Amino acid sequence: MxxxxxxxxxxxxxxxxxxxxxxxxxxxxxxxxxxxQTATKSATLGSLGVIIGVGIWxxxxxxxxxxxxxxxxxxxxxxxxxxxxxxxxxIRAAYKSGIPLWEGSxxxxxxxxxxxxxxxxxxxxNPDETPIKEGGVE
Amino acid sequence: MIGINVYLxxxxxxxxxxxxxxxxxxxTVDRLVAxxxxxxxxxxxxxLFALYYGRMIFLDVALVYAILxxxxxxxxxxxxxxxx
Lengths: 138, 84
Known about the structure:
Shape of chain A: elongated
Distance between the termini of chain A: 61 Å
GO molecular function (chain B): sodium:proton antiporter activity
Number of helices of chain B: 3
Number of strands of chain A: 0
Transmembrane segments (chain B): 6-23, 32-51, 57-77
Strand content of chain B: under 5%
Membrane topology (chain B): Multi-pass membrane protein
Oligomer: heterodimer
Main location (chain B): membrane
Low-confidence stretches of chain B: none
Subcellular location (chain B): Cell membrane
Structural class of chain A: mainly alpha
């Protein structure tokens, strides 16, 4: 009874620590890409700690039950699945809308990938048509 | 041990720190990233409210809030990309 409460409190404390760490990274980092790197991962880990910690903590109280823990695990798995998807969509939108990288950045793999794909497509005057035609043939 | 009020206060501090980036961010995507982090933090806050009041219905609220925030962020990202 009491051990479950202690484990839950430790998990919640860890989660809030990672929440504060993620918002500090959001302030500290110089670039939108670096901010996304530091913010998404630690916020996901922090919410995993808080949500599962609350589920275990509630088992130690008088109103907690097994459905409580099941619901918290469902919320945690949903956040774990959807947080990287939204981060990926946001950062791709940032790159497509032309926000430049920080001047200290040295590697830009996505631009190399785009240039290689454009070179592979062949026809320089109409680069948007060719992949659609290839997809249609296959 | 410590008490749930301390955790609520720590989460409030984290939300205020990320609100700094919402007001200050140079580009639109900076503000969107900060709002995304704030929705994640708010989901954890709803789950803590469920423990604070001892009612399970707040967990359903947290799940629906997570789903709606995910859809909103995806829609804003598509709009920034120019596909909407």
